[in-house]
Write a structure and sequence with these properties.
Chain A: This is Leucine-responsive regulatory protein. Chain A: One of its GO terms (cellular component) is cytosol. Chain A: GO terms for molecular function: sequence-specific DNA binding. The complex is a heterodimer. The two termini of chain A are 19 Å apart. In chain A, α1 packs across α2 and α2 packs across α3. By secondary structure, chain A is of the alpha+beta class. Chain A has a 4-stranded antiparallel beta sheet with strand order 3-4-2-5. Helices cover 35% and strands 30% of the residues of chain A. Chain A has 2 domains: 41 residues, Arc Repressor Mutant, subunit A (Orthogonal Bundle), CATH 1.10.10; 82 residues, Lrp/AsnC effector binding domain/regulation of amino acid metabolism (RAM) domain (Alpha-Beta Plaits), CATH 3.30.70.920. Chain B is built from 5 helices and 5 strands; from the N terminus they run αααββαββαβ. The relative contact order of chain B is 0.16. A 4-stranded antiparallel beta sheet of chain B has the order 3-4-2-5. Helices cover 36% and strands 30% of the residues of chain B. The two termini of chain B are 12 Å apart. Chain B folds into 2 domains: 41 residues, Winged helix-like DNA-binding domain superfamily/Winged helix DNA-binding domain (Arc Repressor Mutant, subunit A), CATH 1.10.10; 81 residues, Alpha-Beta Plaits. The longest helix of chain B is centred in the first third of the chain and has 13 residues. The chains are: A alpha+beta, B alpha+beta. Chains A and B meet through α1, β1, α4, β3 and β4 of A and α1, β1, β3 and β5 of B.
């Protein structure tokens, strides 16, 4: 399962976390390690599944997606509609960019990206409220988002 | 302002963010220098904010992931700022979001196991300033991850 990682591994993760295109040499210089040693550690982190590829981070507003809404969804008819059906249908909506199955007040948490509030309303009414088994929905409009480095 | 070339590059790159500019150039039949220059321009314009590494916390030994939905006591002056500043001091907080809606703020928190979670929750989270109400959603599974944008 979980392999042991040391402080040097964590230092490497801290560097690549926000700058994944750096060469092994550049990462090594940032953490005080040789290029080959850094390369070996990066490979080990990838093989252990700790580093799971890259992600492009955009300024969504500048790309014309002015509204991000988080939805809490409670299924109304558990047992009658399968979770698989709901998950398949919700994942097929392009504006729904993230779907998480959660435990608590809601069953699912959705991240929806839309052009504007009118566009969001269209997605909510025509697509999300029409999903099989959907019950209570709560919408919260994202105002700001700050990613933290986490325990590295 | 996005040009057609930018859109082609971003569409292809979103599908496979591990590609290097030279791979993108080959795939799109563009000169490598053009791709490098376009990417540089997208960064300078702030459209592309960065290329991040995706870290799997579970593989690092953090098995528990909780989304905390928080309502603040807004009668307190600067409640948002004070809360956010204190939340930044907790290393296990991986994301801080603010909202317009029933929920004021949301924290993504990770923990090694339930015992670690309980300790964090009691000693670090519940002691954060100006909390009026707090509700936890425990992460079970990610069904769909950040899908590509229709650029």
């Amino acid at each position: 399962m979980s392999v042991a990682f040391d402080d040097t591994d964590r230092a490497i993760l801290r560097v690549v976390q926000t700058n994944a295109t750096l060469s092994a040499g550049a990462v090594g210089r940032a953490v005080g390690l040789s290029q080959p040693a850094t390369w070996r550690r990066l490979r080990r982190l990838r093989e252990a599944g700790v580093l799971r590829g890259r992600e492009l981070v955009f300024d969504l507003e500048k790309l014309g997606f002015g509204v991000t809404v988080f939805l809490g969804v409670k299924l109304a008819t558990k047992g009658r509609v399968s979770l698989d059906d709901f998950e398949r249908a919700v994942s097929a909506i392009p504006e729904v960019r993230r779907v998480e199955h959660v435990l608590g007040r809601y069953d699912y948490r959705l991240r929806v990206t839309a052009r504007d509030l009118a566009d969001f309303e269209r997605v909510l009414r025509r697509r999300i409220m029409a999903l099989p088994g959907v019950g209570e929905i709560e919408s919260n409009v994202l105002l700001s988002e700050e990613r933290r480095p986490g325990p590295l | 302002m996005l040009y057609d070339t930018d859109r082609r590059i971003l569409r292809r790159w979103q599908g496979d963010p591990d590609l290097a500019p030279s791979d993108l150039a080959a795939a799109l039949d563009l000169p490598a220098a053009t791709v490098t220059r376009r990417i540089e321009r997208l960064r300078e314009a702030g459209i592309l904010r960065g290329v991040h590494a995706v870290i799997d916390w579970a593989a690092l030994g953090y098995a528990v992931q909780v989304s905390l939905r928080i309502q603040l006591d807004k009668s307190a002056p600067r409640a948002f700022d004070a809360f956010a500043a204190a939340a930044r001091e907790i290393p296990e907080v991986t994301e801080i979001q603010t909202f317009l809606g029933r929920v004021d703020l949301r924290l993504d928190v990770i923990a090694r196991d339930m015992a670690h979670w309980q300790a964090l929750y009691r000693d670090r989270i519940l002691t954060l300033p100006h909390i009026a109400e707090i509700e936890a959603l425990m992460h079970v599974a990610t069904v769909k991850t950040d899908a590509t944008l229709p650029i």
